[in-house]
Amino acid sequence: QIQGMPYGNCLLLSDGPVNNSTGIPFFYVTPKDNTVADLLKNPVASLTLPEADGNFCRKNVIDPEDPRCARLTLTGQMVTVPPEEVEFAKQAMFSRHPVVRKWPRSYEWFFMKMNIEHIWLQSWYGEVSAIAVEE
Fold this sequence. Notes:
Pfam families: CREG_beta-barrel
Shape: globular
Subcellular location: Secreted
Distance between the termini: 40 Å
Radius of gyration: 16 Å
Protein name: Protein CREG2
Main location: secreted
Oligomer: single chain
Structural class: alpha+beta
Keywords: Glycoprotein, Secreted, Signal
């Protein structure tokens, strides 16, 4: 009923094991999720990450969704993780989210990652700065 309309979803993500963060978001997903079914047809996506652990918000006991807390928005293409990267994706996801090991196998889980094309940092009530992907 909402074909062609963008909508958001909360997905577990990891950018690598705790001792090997890469900055590349990996996801463990199922094609039974409408979001994933849509991404397989049109892989353009955006991901917004709040400053949950930043010094300002933590020090001042401010909700990470408060506009005074920075947020990073990544946009790019969601792709299936190629076979040569699956082991790394598995280590990345399972080390940070051990519960996914217990998810029902009948859901046909697989790994996706975002090939980041643009990065924006929004801080303090709407100021937005572009950040080079290489950074």
